[in-house]
Amino acid sequence: MIISTLIIAALTVFQLVAVFLGRTIALEAARDGADRARISPVDVTGAAQRATAYTRDATGAWLSHVDADGRSDGNVVRVTVNAEVASFVPFVTMRISQTAAAPIERIRP
Asked: Which residue among 25, 68, 93, 107 has its CA within the 20 to 30 Å range from the CA of 16?
């Protein structure tokens, strides 16, 4: 009984670490995409593709169903990365979402 409790506790800790690391990588991918899109011409589709590629390259298979979305209102560009974290605890599915925003750069005399 004690060993099974310790195993479940260890798996829970691994799950929390995976979620924290996944959120960190997703935020960095969103920032990378936003940095790409903030320079004229604004390309939110390219930014979303770059964020998705960054996440997949950095994590391999333990972040799955990676999806990125880029939007712009003309002044600010926002990139959101969504993913599903690999499950260490049975019957637990955790999704993460991170968003980064950056002002669009304009050259003014």
From this structure: 68
